[in-house]
């Protein structure tokens, strides 16, 4: 369950407010500017700022944001921090600034990393302050201290933090346990007893000061718990509650949950928590019974779950259900034995079987009758409370003791059983429950009862469960948005007869004409719910043809939603976005369903197959769907109790975009994995959970390294090989002149030991790295041109070669690929090399998007890989830029066609040999023909060519051709087949010819199964499981088809993942488990992940899940944070060096390939512009900067007009439209720019439409020559402050980048400084050279011939473009005597008297750059919208005509 999101939202201050603010003035005087000129640190300033701007404003987000933005922490607080001297105000200011950085999701620990001693002092002061009871520190301040501590516990990857946290959670914290409990725990684990004794001896030798500091650290968490319990006890069940205490308790529970959710921190802490009886105290607290305690109660449930988690705290070993049952039985049995021996009152309890006494009710029945003293005696015997007679005995009440004993011994409900009984589709009860799915803007100020995806997980079960819960909630949020959007478009109103009248039209939703449940199957053994429920849904598709095709394209396993609305509002009532949706629409029920297929005219499901689906008459279509058996069971139970039958009420069917609709398959897959023995390779297990040596899966540490490998066509020549391994020496057994690619390399490490000068002892042996090079001659494949192998032409860099080497070896390979560094080429070469070195192994390729998969696949096709071994699964194969079909059924067709082609070759060979009979009828007969006619002739030919024994002379060269038995067959090959120059050469050609023939028959033998398998489905399954060696799919498809693939027996040895940093953690994990383990072990040998964690992460639309739960963290990013070794590609070949400099600072060592300075397009300047990069300042237009017609729908009219004017100017110079893309950081601006383009340019043949107008987020992975970028915001930097978004924005351009923004805002942002410092070095007004035309002739660095035209502002640019256009038009009229349509009729039109109408979308995205259109549909979107509008008008007109007709009929009657 999720707590309600905080309703408050701190508004970001404007630039003007910042400049006028006291803080800004202080910052300029004291900590901004040149460090050498800053005044001496004044502690009075920090005290004043803290009391006035932080404490005095009740920790106002706005004031704190302003301080943090001014670099208060980095430049003033931390450099001047001294643990002994700094005031509480300075410490609290540091704490608040760090918390603010976490709230804003910007790096927080950078300035602390190099000062471990000072951080140690800060951490100690924070701990002391958080325990303070003297009244100097308020509860609100202590809540911020708790939050800071929580951030520390969740940042263990930072060395300075980990060192301090380890002192707090070490074994010695058990000093706080009851002596009897401590003795019991040490007795249970003898190894710990030895360690404890050794630690005690070491402590005894320490001085008093050291012992005191150690004792403080070890007792800190215990003391903090005791302080929390005191505060908790002061909150009454009724009456007024101090909300600062409630917030403190919530933050404390969050801290406890996070400590328990990490193995390193829970190892000894869990025992301490149990000893303090924290959970029992919280269960009985007054806060839990109050309305204000709802979130506290949810956090308590999470704490209870993790306190009893199925794991051995000391070893980290996961407990199975069987283990947990045994532990539970042992605990009850020991209690029964103790009761039998010492407590006669419990004789009946002690003699009962375990199953009859382990429920809460039965335990209460047995123990409830005992008095307080007896209960205390039992608890003391179990080492839960101090011994009998202790002074604390009186503080324990009977209710507390009873709860303590029962909660420890009752049977825990099975998490797995509850999970298996959970419906996977969200219903109306969940969709609009804000406690479960927060709807409000999540500011990051409050805490939520949500699982977090951090660095480490307890077990694979914990890993999957957290991902399951978060994925389910995020999907629910997206589904709610879709349902609200589509139902609003349908405009359901109450008709005159009380029914439902739909006054609108929706592309993704249709009114249901009929619905009936057709099958309810019997439950499986041991289950209550039906094993399957099927129903038929009928709709009438009176829509445009392309929309109708979309509906008919619904495939098997696509998810749709059945909705019931009973509107109460009259026809014509508008739907208001700001009012609650459910009462407006009259929405009653929502149920999910899964498509089985569309029904044909005979009522049978149309199977997906090779051919096109049959054409159905009319507009009525019926789909057979599967309903959720668990949900159906619950609904029928309600019907039996007198409730309404939901399944007789549905009146809307809603579909979703296939790309966003894989949630059910993912949830089912996670649930399946939790129900099965989830096996990942032993070498990966600990790394996935975040433990152990992060480098343990690197190829250099793997036990089965392959020493010698064929590098195929990786190297262009020997010089390329040497330069690729600068730290290796090369050697070879052949002459240098003979060393030509392809090469086979053997890597050796020659141990060398060196003597010390002063003595005889040897130093540790050092290794000299050596490569033994062998030229690998590819056997002649035949005389035809197509027999020649395709070769790589890319001169890979040394780091690319290291990535390829790592990918070829067993283990985990992580390749960080900055923009333009050839990630795809590296991936393709790895795949090719694995294919040639390990022909029996199968490689799975997984990417985030179809576009990336297709780019990868197109390059694979161009390599020396037999296309019969390639297979492309999923919905995106249609977009492959090739005439060949690499889909499953396309490959089946290819095999069948290839079979006929090869059999025709067999027939030709038969004719050439003069053999009678029908040997080319089947693959089987062809096999016999090869064995008895072809192979025998070849063996006879070889025996004749061998020199007789005793003769030393080589056979005659002419005999090779004369005796060759297949000369007639090869008459169609390039002639002459044999050169006749040497016996060896001609013999090699003859063997190549035979290899060609042998390959024909080998392929026919492989295709033989396709003769035996008759159905297309069976053939496609065989192809997937046996024939294909390289199988490509998206992560979405992997999740959708996981169950099917496992059932088929799909096997693979290697996985290569592209775009890894853009894939959700769980969607990265699922492809590892698309096959069943063999003998309990995984078959996987290699996992290659290629991505860039410095670019944008996966899109998470709900801010609470994105920020609080860290759901946007990909597995790739987590591995980097954990410290898994990476290969960082370090040379880019996309952008000019000046553009690359804007983002290369974010990478370890990113340089440029030579061609970005030598190729012609890089050597010339951008015509019409004086600079290739420019930041152009855009002021308010008519007093307006950024605006938001709808929440989070940011627009900036001045920037939109400016960008479009520059685009028009470029087109008038002759730039091709497809060389220009317009990007922006917000959806609202994207729509506004499209509106302006539609108004100004689209219908003008001289201007037209740019290649793309989209958001930065949508454009990731794409590029163009010129990028015009609008940053929109004028009040606060917004989400561009996420440096990953900045990197994407700056790296899309190849030749020119022009950024339109409010310079004064962005240049002062700390995170953006490295990029904007370079941009502001150039003029912030646009400098043009209007006398130039495209293509360019001016060299880079040269000045334009004429003086530059300096554009002052947007109206100036618009006026100039209008005049420039008129001049161009006049020139055209003079030369062509033709007129062209003008974009502007007057200067007023050019500048614009009023802004164009804001584009309002019905569905407002919570995610700042989430687009409401697929990236493949960007170009079509405007036309589609126009068609939709026309369609809606036609519908309205038809309905009006129907009404008129009905009125006329009424009059006649």
What does this structure look like?
By secondary structure, this protein is of the alpha/beta class. Helices cover 45% and strands 11% of the residues. The protein is built from 54 helices and 28 strands. The strands form seven sheets. The chain has a seven-stranded parallel beta sheet. Strands 3-4-7-6-5-8 form a six-stranded antiparallel barrel. Strands 22-26-25-23-24 form a five-stranded parallel beta sheet. Helix 41 links the parallel strand 17 and strand 18. Helix 3 crosses helix 6. The longest helix is centred in the last third of the chain and has 32 residues. The N terminus and C terminus are likely disordered.
Which features would summarize this protein structure in a list?
6-stranded antiparallel β-barrel; alpha/beta
Average pLDDT number: 86
How many angstroms does the end-to-end distance come to? 59 Å
Q: Tell me, what's the shape?
A: globular
Count of beta strands: 28
Question: Into which percent range does the helicity of residues fall?
Answer: 40-55%
Unreliable segments (pLDDT under 50, ≥5 consecutive)? Answer: 1-11, 755-759, 761-765, 1378-1423, 1444-1453
Largest sheet: 7 strands, parallel
- What percent strand? 5-15%
Helical run tally: 54
| Coarse structural class | alpha/beta
Order of strands across the main sheet:
15-16-14-17-18-13-19
Radius of gyration from CA coordinates = 37 Å
């Amino acid at each position: 369950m999720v707590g309600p999101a905080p309703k408050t939202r701190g508004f970001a201050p404007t630039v003007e407010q910042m400049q006028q603010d006291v803080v800004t003035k202080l910052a300029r005087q004291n900590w901004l500017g040149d460090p050498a000129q800053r005044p001496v640190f004044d502690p009075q300033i920090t005290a004043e700022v803290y009391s006035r701007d932080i404490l005095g404003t009740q920790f106002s987000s706005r004031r704190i944001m302003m301080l943090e933005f001014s670099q208060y922490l980095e430049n003033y607080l931390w450099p001047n921090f001294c643990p002994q001297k700094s005031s509480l105000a300075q410490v609290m200011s540091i704490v608040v600034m760090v918390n603010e950085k976490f709230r804003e999701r910007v790096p927080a620990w950078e300035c602390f990393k190099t000062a471990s001693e000072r951080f140690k002092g800060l951490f100690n002061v924070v701990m002391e302050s958080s325990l303070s009871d003297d009244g100097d520190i308020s509860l609100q301040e202590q809540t911020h201290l708790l939050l800071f501590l929580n951030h520390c516990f969740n940042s263990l990857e930072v060395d300075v933090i980990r060192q301090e946290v380890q002192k707090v959670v070490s074994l010695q914290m058990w000093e706080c346990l009851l002596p009897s409990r401590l003795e019991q725990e040490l007795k249970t684990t003898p190894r710990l007893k030895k360690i404890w004794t050794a630690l005690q001896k070491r402590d005894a030798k320490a001085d008093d000061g050291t012992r005191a500091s150690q004792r403080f650290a070890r007792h800190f968490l215990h003391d903090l718990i005791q302080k929390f319990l005191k505060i908790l006890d002061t909150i009454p069940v009724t009456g007024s509650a101090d909300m600062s205490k409630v917030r403190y308790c919530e933050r404390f529970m969050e801290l406890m949950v996070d400590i328990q959710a990490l193995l390193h921190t829970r190892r000894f802490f869990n025992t301490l928590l149990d000893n303090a009886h924290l959970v029992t105290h919280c269960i009985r607290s007054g806060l839990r019974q109050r309305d204000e305690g709802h979130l506290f109660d949810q956090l308590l449930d999470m704490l209870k779950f993790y306190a009893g988690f199925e794991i051995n705290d000391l070893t980290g070993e996961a407990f199975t259900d069987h283990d947990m049952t045994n532990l539970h039985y042992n605990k009850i049995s020991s209690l029964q034995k103790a009761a039998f021996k010492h407590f006669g009152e419990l004789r009946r309890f002690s003699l009962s079987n375990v199953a009859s006494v382990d429920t809460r009710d039965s335990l209460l029945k047995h123990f409830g009758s005992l008095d307080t003293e007896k209960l205390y005696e039992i608890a003391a015997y179990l080492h839960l409370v101090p011994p009998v007679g202790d002074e604390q005995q009186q503080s324990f009440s009977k209710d507390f003791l009873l709860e303590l004993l029962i909660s420890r011994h009752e049977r825990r409900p099975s998490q797995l059983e509850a999970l298996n009984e959970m419906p996977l589709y969200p219903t109306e009860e969940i969709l609009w429950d804000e406690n479960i799915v927060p709807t409000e803007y999540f500011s990051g100020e409050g805490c939520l009862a949500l699982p977090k995806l951090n660095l480490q997980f307890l077990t694979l079960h914990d890993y999957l469960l957290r991902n399951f819960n978060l994925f389910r909630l995020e999907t629910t949020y997206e589904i709610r948005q879709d349902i609200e959007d589509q139902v609003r478009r349908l405009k359901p109103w109450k008709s005159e007869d009380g029914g439902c009248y739909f006054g609108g039209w929706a592309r993704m939703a249709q009114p249901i004409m009929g619905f009936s449940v057709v099958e309810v199957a019997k439950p499986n053994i041991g289950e209550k719910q039906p094993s399957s429920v099927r129903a038929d849904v009928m709709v009438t598709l009176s829509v445009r043809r392309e929309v109708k095709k979309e509906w008919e394209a619904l495939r098997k396993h696509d998810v749709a939603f059945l909705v019931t609305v009973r509107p109460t509002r009259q026809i014509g009532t508008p739907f208001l976005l700001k009012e609650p949706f459910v009462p407006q629409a009259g929405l009653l029920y929502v149920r999910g369903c899964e498509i089985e297929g569309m029904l044909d005219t005979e009522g049978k499901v149309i199977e997906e197959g090779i051919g096109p689906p049959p054409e159905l008459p009319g507009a009525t279509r019926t789909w057979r769907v599967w309903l959720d058996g668990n949900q159906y069971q619950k609904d029928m139970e309600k019907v039996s109790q007198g409730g309404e039958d939901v399944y007789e009420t549905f009146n809307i069917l809603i579909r979703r975009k296939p790309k966003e609709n894989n949630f059910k398959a993912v949830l089912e897959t996670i649930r399946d994995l939790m129900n099965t023995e989830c096996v990942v390779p032993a070498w990966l297990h600990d790394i996935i959970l975040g433990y152990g040596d992060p480098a343990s899966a690197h190829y250099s540490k793997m036990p089965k390294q392959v020493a010698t490998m064929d590098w195929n066509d990786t190297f262009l020549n020997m010089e390329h090989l040497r330069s690729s391994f600068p730290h290796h020496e090369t050697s070879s057994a052949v002459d240098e002149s003979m060393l030509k690619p392809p090469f086979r390399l053997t890597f050796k490490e020659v141990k060398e030991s060196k003597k010390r000068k002063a003595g005889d002892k040897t130093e540790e042996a050092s290794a000299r790295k050596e490569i033994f090079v062998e030229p690998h001659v590819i056997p002649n494949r035949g005389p035809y041109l197509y027999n020649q192998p395709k070769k790589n032409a890319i001169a890979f860099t040394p780091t690319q070669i290291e990535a390829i080497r790592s990918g070829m070896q067993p283990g985990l390979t992580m390749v960080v690929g900055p923009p333009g560094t050839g990630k795809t080429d590296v991936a393709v070469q790895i795949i090719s090399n694995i294919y040639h070195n390990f022909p029996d192994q199968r490689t799975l390729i997984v990417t985030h998007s179809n576009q990336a998969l297709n780019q990868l696949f197109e390059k694979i096709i161009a390599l020396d890989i037999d296309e019969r071994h390639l297979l492309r699964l999923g919905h995106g194969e249609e977009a492959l830029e090739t005439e060949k079909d690499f889909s499953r059924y396309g490959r089946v067709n290819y095999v069948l066609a290839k079979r006929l082609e090869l059999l025709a070759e067999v027939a030709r060979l038969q004719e050439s040999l003069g053999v009678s009979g029908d040997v080319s009828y089947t693959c089987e007969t062809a096999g016999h023909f090869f064995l008895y006619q072809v192979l025998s002739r070849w063996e006879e030919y070889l025996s004749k060519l061998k020199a007789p024994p005793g003769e030393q002379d080589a056979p005659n060269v002419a005999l090779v051709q004369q005796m060759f038995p297949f000369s007639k067959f090869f008459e169609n090959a390039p002639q002459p087949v044999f050169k006749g120059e040497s016996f060896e050469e001609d013999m090699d050609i003859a063997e190549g010819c035979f290899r060609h023939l042998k390959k024909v028959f080998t392929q026919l033998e492989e295709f033989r199964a396709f003769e035996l398998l008759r159905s297309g489905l069976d053939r496609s399954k065989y192809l997937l499981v046996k024939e294909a060696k390289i199988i490509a799919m998206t992560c979405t498809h992997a999740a959708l088809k996981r169950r099917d693939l496992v059932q088929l027996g799909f096997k693979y040895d290697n996985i290569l993942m592209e775009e890894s940093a853009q894939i959700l953690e769980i969607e990265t994990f699922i492809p590892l488990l698309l096959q069943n383990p063999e003998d309990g072990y995984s078959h996987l040998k290699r996992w290659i992940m290629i991505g860039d964690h410095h670019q944008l992460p996966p899109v998470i639309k709900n801010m609470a899940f994105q920020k609080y739960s860290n759901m946007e963290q990909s597995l790739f990013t987590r591995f980097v944070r954990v410290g898994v070794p990476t290969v960082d590609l370090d040379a880019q070949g996309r952008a000019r060096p000046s553009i690359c400099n804007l983002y290369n600072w974010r990478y370890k060592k990113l340089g440029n390939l030579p061609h970005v300075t030598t190729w012609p397009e890089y050597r010339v300047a951008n015509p019409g512009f004086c600079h290739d990069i420019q930041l152009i300042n855009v002021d308010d237009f008519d007093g307006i900067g950024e605006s938001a017609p709808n929440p989070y729908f940011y627009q900036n009219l001045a920037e939109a007009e400016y960008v479009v004017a520059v685009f028009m100017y470029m087109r008038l110079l002759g730039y091709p439209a497809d060389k220009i893309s317009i990007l922006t950081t917000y959806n609202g601006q994207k729509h506004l720019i499209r509106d302006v383009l539609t108004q100004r340019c689209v219908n003008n043949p001289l201007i037209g439409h740019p290649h793309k107008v989209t958001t930065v987020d949508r454009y990731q992975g794409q590029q163009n020559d010129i990028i015009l970028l609008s940053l929109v915001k004028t009040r606060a930097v917004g989400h561009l402050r996420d440096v990953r978004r900045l990197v994407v924005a700056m790296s899309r351009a190849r030749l020119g980048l022009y950024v339109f923004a409010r310079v004064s805002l962005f240049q002062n942002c700390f995170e953006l400084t490295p990029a904007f410092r370079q941009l502001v070095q150039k003029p912030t007004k646009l400098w043009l050279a209007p006398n130039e035309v495209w293509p360019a002739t001016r060299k880079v660095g040269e000045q334009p011939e004429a003086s530059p035209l300096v554009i002052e502002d947007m109206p100036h640019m618009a006026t100039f473009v209008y005049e420039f256009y008129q001049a161009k038009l006049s020139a055209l009229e003079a030369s062509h005597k033709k007129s062209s349509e003008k974009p502007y009729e007057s200067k007023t039109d050019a500048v614009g008297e009023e802004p164009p109408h804001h584009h309002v979308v019905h569905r407002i995205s919570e995610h700042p750059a989430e687009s409401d259109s697929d990236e493949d549909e960007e170009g079509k979107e405007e036309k589609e919208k126009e068609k939709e509008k026309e369609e809606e008008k036609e519908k309205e007109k038809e309905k009006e005509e129907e009404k008129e007709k009905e009125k006329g009929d009424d009059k006649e009657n």
